[in-house]
Amino acid sequence: MVQSSVDAIKDLRAQTGAGIMDCKRALEEVGGDTAKAYDLLRERGVALASKKAARDTKEGVVDSYIHSGSKVGAIIELSCETDFVARTPEFKELAHDLAMQIAAMAPTHINSDALSDKEVTNQQEVCLLDQTFIKDQSKTIRELINDMVARVGENVVVRRFQRFALGE
């Protein structure tokens, strides 16, 4: 095993929000390569998200975004398990970023569960979770939410959203 430097662990923790020991183990598993350790932690975040998906989400926030000019806006209900997580700045920022995503990209569904055959062809356009994040093109909304699940250790769910535009 490779001994991880404190700086590498701190950098990886800052990038992923994972725990110190998780960062240390990931770096040791991949021989100290920070990029590979980041990918490994993201994969584990997905695994963690699938384990937590069955948990009830009865807390959360309702957030909105109104685009400059006040002609387009969106409102979202983002749920989590505890009020403690719902009050964190990171959770509130995620809700606001998702409201901005909805205003900009105009999805019609949260995921592909309720799509008709006609809509399946453009799933990435109409499903919020499948869209590329407008602030970081390397991530999808699903990955963004999974990163939050890994960071806070709770299930996070987009419960519902609505987009408003003048004339639509």
Structure description:
This protein has 168 residues and is α+β, with helices and mostly antiparallel strands. It has two domains: 6-52, Helicase, Ruva Protein, domain 3 (Orthogonal Bundle); 59-165, Tetrahydropterin Synthase, Chain A (2-Layer Sandwich), CATH 3.30.479.20. It has helices at residues 6-16, 20-29, 34-52, 83-86, 89-105, 117-120, 123-126, 141-152; strands at 59-66, 72-80, 157-165. Strands 1-2-3 form a three-stranded antiparallel sheet. Helix 1 crosses helix 3 (34-52).
| Total count of domains | 2
CATH homologous superfamily name of the largest domain?
Answer: Elongation factor Ts, dimerisation domain
The CATH architecture designation of the largest domain is 2-Layer Sandwich
Q: From N to C, what is the helix and strand string?
A: HHHEEHHHHHE
Basic shape = globular
* CATH topological fold name of the largest domain: Tetrahydropterin Synthase, Chain A
How much of the polypeptide forms β-strand, as a percent range? 15-25%
> Could you name the CATH class of the largest domain?
Alpha Beta
Ends apart, CA distance between termini: 59 Å
Q: How would you state the average pLDDT, rounded?
A: 85
Give the class from helix and strand content and strand pairing: alpha+beta
Question: Any low-confidence stretches, pLDDT <50, length ≥5?
Answer: none
Strand order of the biggest β-sheet: 1-2-3
Provide a count of the helices. Answer: 8
Based on DSSP secondary structure assignment, what is the total number of beta strands?
Answer: 3
Compact summary:
This protein is an alpha+beta fold. It folds into two domains: 47 residues, Helicase, Ruva Protein, domain 3; 107 residues, Tetrahydropterin Synthase, Chain A (2-Layer Sandwich).
